[in-house]
Each structure stands twice: as C-alpha cells, then as structure tokens.
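Practice problem: predict the structure.
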Amino acid sequence: MISGYATLNETSRHCHKFNLPYRRSSRFLVSPIAIGTHLGEMNEEDSRLYKEGIQYALKNGINFIDTAINYRGMRSERDIGCVLNDLILSKKILNREAVIVSSKAGIIPGDVMENLVPKDYLQKKLLEPGIIQESDLNEFQHQRHVLNPSYYKFAIAKSKQHLNLDTIDIYYVHNPEISMMTLEPETFYNHLENLFLTLESQVQLGNIRYYGIATWNGFLKSPDEKGFISLEEVMNKAKAVAGDDHHFQFIQYPLNKKISQSLTFKNQRIQNKMYSLLHAAEELGLLSTTSAPFQLGKVFGKDVNPKRLLIDIIRTKGIFSTMVGMKQIKHIRENIESISMLE
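Answer:
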C-alpha cells in the first residue's frame, strides 16, 4: 500500500513543472481537468487504454484522478491502483503527495473480476455477511442506494485495496438523491448526519482525507421537487458532527451546455438568501468539482467544438476542477494542449 496523501507543498512543487493554469486552494493545487474513469467497457482492452492514458496524464501535468467503486465493475479503481503502484513505488517518478485521488460509494456495485453483477454482489458480499440489511436499501427506478455507515466502512476499505492507497484524498457520498427519493427529508438528513459521523472517524483513522457529496441532480432541483437536497442543511449536519473543524469540503455535480442550473438557477437557500449552487458552495466554503462536460456526447452537434465547450467550463469562475472522461492518449494530449493556452 502507498502511504501519504496529497499536500499543498508537494502538489505545488509538482505543478510548477508544467505550463498549465492550476487551481489553488488551502488544501492542494489541482489541474483544471481531472481524469474521469466512469466511461468504458469492463474489459482488458479498455483497462489497457486507461492505464496508458492515466500514466500519460500524470507525466504531463494532470494530477487529479476521479473514480468510484462501481465504475466499470470495480475495474477503474483497480486500473488506477496499478498505475499508481508503478509510478510511485516501482519507478519512483511520482510522489504520492503530488496526486489527488477521489472516489465514491453509495450505489451498489458489481465486481466484474468475480463475475458478480450488482444484484449478486448485493446478496453475496453485502447482505449475507451482514454488512447491510434489506431495510438499508433505498430503491428508485431500479437503482439501489444506501446511507448505512457500515457499507461505507466496507467500501472505503475495498477502494483503498483497489487503489493501493493508505489514504484516499476525497471521498464522496455518491448520488444520495436516490435515497432522498424514497425517504422523508428529516429521515434523510438524520441518516446523513450519522454517515458524516462515520466519515469523520474515517478521516481520524487516516483512511480518507476529506469527504463530500457527488450528485447528478440532487443539488440542482427546485426546492419543492422530490429528491432535492439542501446544501445548507447538509453543511448543518457536518457542523453538528464536527463543528467548524469538519472535513466536508467538496461537492461534485454535472456542468455542461445542457445542464447549467448550477450557474443560473437560484435554488439553494443560505441564511434566507437564494443562491445558485456554485455560489452557495462558495458561501459555505466548499470546493466545486464538476462532471459530464460533454454529457456522454449529447452536447455534440453540427458546428460544436468540443475543445471550446471544455474551455468555457474551465474558465467558469469558482470551478475547482472538471472531471473529463478520457482514456486515449490522443484525447488527453489534445485536452492538455487546449488548457495550456489558457491564462
């Protein structure tokens, strides 16, 4: 296992080697784009491409990798772990403290290496061993989500093993709006507070460094819509658990040409004033990472320039880093060249 975690000093030292417009926070410096690992098949060919692509990215200025335990049947985490082991431990050409790794849990995963689809993984790995109970499952439109802290302890340990890391830099509760769709708001926030208590203990144990919430539409809905999540209420739960010293520091949400509510829709109430999600996060001292800049290609069309779309998002004031699904070296090189021209 690789010891350590990303630090401001080492990310700064590493980033100064490259001509990219890095984003600074009190925690670390990050590249304006991160390697996203959601897309792709669960096969050897895509694993090979991801490993080659991640190696190229880390050697050429990108120092942020985003994943989740359920991505590609757990292969994405394992592919990242292979690359980190090679570059940090074997070749010793990268310092652990220079790279940021985020992962997520909450959605029931499968494990392609054990030939377990999510339904079977749920039964054999979670229910039968007693890690969670049937009553912990919140189901909406064939999606299964859990907020039980025991699952997150299990998932964090699994992700650490896959990634070969002693400490995961950022750990997100993944798409909790699935649970919110089936629970009353008071019940949901009480469960979240209990989960935050466990995540704070995981920080103290050194298993994770910071935590956050990664959503698809939970933070973007109208307050009167089912599944809406109040960022202020989430922050209140973090403070109830750990006061101002809490480690709830990040949120992630989609931002692209078709999904731009985080910039324009004032749906988040902070101290009786309405803000867009991005500005609400800034008011609360949270860092925003965004996902799906191309929305699985749905934003493409005639006369649409993908590079311009990505640059427009990166230039958005307040966005810490954008998760870009990319595994081919050609695309990674093109994206690095594009952002290197930004001021």
